[in-house]
Amino acid sequence: MEYRKIIEIEFKDFTREVLEKSWEWLSDPQIKEQTSTPDFDRESSERWFESLKTRNDYFIKSMWHNNKPIGVVGLKHINGKDGETLGYIGEKEYWGKTIGIQAMEMLINYGRSIKLESIYSVILKTNLGSYKLNRRLGFVKEKDVDEIMITMRLYL
Asked: Which of 21, 47, 130, 132 is deepest in the core (most CB within 10 A)?
């Protein structure tokens, strides 16, 4: 896809430092709503973080700019056939700066590299930014999950 990168980001491992930043980001009411993040506590987050070392159903990276973590992107529920996108740009000053495109392109390339048939996103119907991003990258609406969520899928 052709676009002008406004900001070049770097993908790095998901570390404890980024886990701590994620606490802050996902506590923001706007980000929490847009990502449909359920209530969570430090203990459950810690267990999840530790579980990543041995899980094959997660691929998760942090996004950095100028040596600063700014967000998280990945695939979850990877089953050899498909995987669900996850991600958020935690630093709001980076919203609208092509980071979502770069992140999703990285996930698409990763999905292809491990021979997935498709990847999908479950998003709020009101999250127009995610909807437009997914459409721009070729995802199509697959179904209404319920009255507030939809699934969009990209066949690789």
From this structure: 130
